[in-house]
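note to self — DONT lose this again. spent like an hour looking for the file last time. sequence + predicted structure for the chain T wanted, 117 res
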Amino acid sequence: QVQLVESGGGLVQPGGSLRLSCAASKSIFSFYTMGWYRQASGKQRELVARIFSTGTTNYAVSVKGRFTISRDNTMNTVYLQMNSLKPEDTAVYYCNGYDLGKHRDYWGQGTQVTVSS
């Protein structure tokens, strides 16, 4: 069974930085995309950033220029570097992997990010 395990969440002051990690239990080459989604309290889950197997990246408008998604293929890990954090970035962040061959999404358990002074 494929597992995605997030880490790196926590409490940070506005303007601060955090780096989230998502470790996969199998090669991330097998995923067509890997991404980060977030869900704030009372809101729908939304895409934050994703990276395709080709290396192409997409970002939500609200985080473009502040967040960077990257991957380490040797470690089967995807990262989300978050800079200039704002209170509105507060949410549970979920790692996602989409297996095109199996037409299936895989999700991590989520990690809480709280931006507050």
